[in-house]
Amino acid sequence: MGIEAVTLALDGVIFDTEEAQLRACNAAFDACGLDLQWSLPQLRAAARVHGTANVMNAIAERMSMNAGDTRVVRLATEKNRRFHDIVLAGQPVRSSGCAQLMADALESGCKIAVVTDMPVQTATALLDCAFGNAVTNIFSLVVCGADFAADEGNGPYDLALRTMGVEAGSCVAIDSAVPGLNAARRSGIWTMAVTPYEKDIARITGADIWCPQMQELRDMIERRNTPRVRPERFVTFDALRAFKTGRTAMPVVAKPMPVAA
């Protein structure tokens, strides 16, 4: 099947939120009296497994606490509040490559939706700041505060498919974390994992394809110091269609996927 709809996550896909998420996490640790400060690799490891909205569940595991423990809930609430304030205080950093994919998809008549576990108020503020009044023209649907652990048939991707009137086989989900990718696959959607560094995310989730993005490509550019390699590349819509329909060979996970500018 072709592609009639593409669902996109916010964190790590439409936006580069790593630095803001890291600041929010470390501020939350301070506010809650924890003698802990995460590095960027530590944040990535936790976000990869839990997603950025529920990244504090990694602390619950470390301290052998239930995710519903009041201390974990307080941490998560504080972290999400801090992240919301950071979002409102600055200009969102958009992925130029993803922006081009979105433009090409819309030009091809494809529907675009956002599916994110980011809290509603923060996601709304982020989208309004980046897209303004064009939000409703660009996105057919925005699902915020998604419960990626919902029962099969009642998950956020099921909602997205029903609302857009699209079959799962004609949809592609692009996300950067395990919970969203797993939820999409349970709904029968073809998935692409987009990560800054972690090549193993596709193996963890069983995603259909993995695409390198942002910082790793910047590092490659610095190492090679060649003008032929361009930063912030992202899979093109034409390439995405080719991979999904099997017209292009699957890249080896250990190597960056060649993508067109």
From TrEMBL:
SUPFAM superfamilies documented for this protein: HAD-like (SSF56784)
Domain of life: Bacteria
Coiled-coil zones: none
InterPro entries: CbbY-like (IPR044999), HAD-like_sf (IPR036412), HAD_sf (IPR023214), PGP-like_dom2 (IPR023198)
UniProt-recorded Gene Ontology molecular function terms: hydrolase activity
Organism of derivation: Noviherbaspirillum denitrificans
Pfam families for the chain: Hydrolase (PF00702)
Protein name as catalogued: Haloacid dehalogenase
